[in-house]
Amino acid sequence: MKTTVVCGLLGSGKTTFIRNLVKDGSGKTVVLVNDFGQSGIDGEIFSAGRIESVELPSGCVCCTLKFDLITTVQRIVKQFSPEHLLIEPSGVASPSAVLEALESAGTGSASVIGIVDTVEFAELYESGMYGSFFQDQIENSDLILVNKTDLADETTIAAAERLIGSINPLAVLLRTVNAEIDIPLPEAPLHRETRSSGCHLHFETLSFRLGSRPSLAALTEFIDILTSGRFGSVARAKALVNTREGPYRFDSTFRRVDRVRFDKSIVKSRIVIIGQGLDAKSLTQSIGSLSR
Fold first, then answer.
1. Three-state SS at 84
2. Would 290 disulfide with which of 134, 172, 214, 226, CB 3.0-4.6 Å?
């Protein structure tokens, strides 16, 4: 079985990359996805694209769910016998800890795809606000996608590439838009020296279910207010919601908001918010008003 770990900070493009890869690939593939929050969203996104997936929600695979990751990988091998296992840890999990868990699971060596948001990467790295996360990600990646280059100028892209090259000169760098690649995935190294720099980033996470169908306008207004910082510092917000105008997916990263029509009716409308200093009481009240 080929095993690939797809890592990257919140909103870098991991889910988009996997959807592209599985859509264009061949052979039986299973995706193990770990959403950071009680209401997993990525699993339903994969399901809408007819991608076989197994979820590990509500926790981080490099800490509280490390044992669950090991046992789930072993169960996937036994139950599905996939040719390719893709693992998408949450956007706060350190790749080194995932690799260590895979070694304990006995799956053999894994290749690592790192994805960075070109627009934000250099500034976030140099600010130090995410500690050693980027160091861990870049050092352990075999192929690094310098993603969202359509949103960045050449100076910003070149700065990101120089910084990545200084951290891991052996990684293959690829400029991408929408995390699309036109080369084969790298083979897993025969011998990997995993470089560990700690556990996951520490964020608060709040998950909400919506009991009724809000209007698309009301939901859009709420997401805009959310990203403005009124409820605290929001690093990422994801939502799958059946609105009065139909099912929609919202994805907000560092104040950039994407809104797209979802492929099918959503099982349970929900919003997941990840950040720091979140005002849970005010958020509960505001989201409650959407459900009325």
1. strand
2. 214
Radius of gyration over alpha carbons of the chain, in Å? 18
The strand pair at 143-147 and 270-276 is best described as: unpaired
Q: Are 15 and 88 in contact (CB under 8 A)?
A: yes
What would the mean pLDDT of 158-167 be, rounded to a whole number? 95
Q: How many Å apart are CA 239 and CA 37, to the nearest integer?
A: 12
If one counts every other C-beta atom within 10 angstroms of the C-beta of residue 139, the result is 21
Q: Residue 163: helix, strand or coil by DSSP?
A: helix
Q: Quick check: 53 and 108 in contact, CB under 8 A?
A: no
* Per-residue confidence band for 41, with pLDDT thresholds at 50, 70 and 90: low
Specify the DSSP element, H or E, that contains 143.
strand 143-147
pLDDT above 80: residue 30 = yes
User: Which residues contact residue 102 at a Cβ distance below 8 angstroms, ignoring those fewer than 6 apart?
Assistant: 3, 5, 69, 73, 87, 110
| Packed helices 95-105 and 66-80: angle between N→C axes, nearest 10 degrees | 50
Which pLDDT tens digit goes with each residue over 231-279?
A: 998 888 889 999 999 999 998 876 778 888 998 888 889 998 888 899 9
Mean pLDDT, rounded, of the chain? 85
Contacts of 94 (CB under 8 A, 6+ apart): 62, 132, 133, 136, 137, 196, 197, 198, 199, 200
Residue 102 CA to residue 137 CA, distance in Å, equals 16
B/e letters for 96-131, b = 16+ CB within 10 Å, e = fewer, are bbbbbbbeebebebbbbbbbbbbbbbbebbeeeebe
pTM: 0.79
* CA-based nearest residue to 186, from 6, 12, 20, 15: 6
Main-chain dihedrals φ then ψ at residue 91, nearest 5 degrees: -75, 15
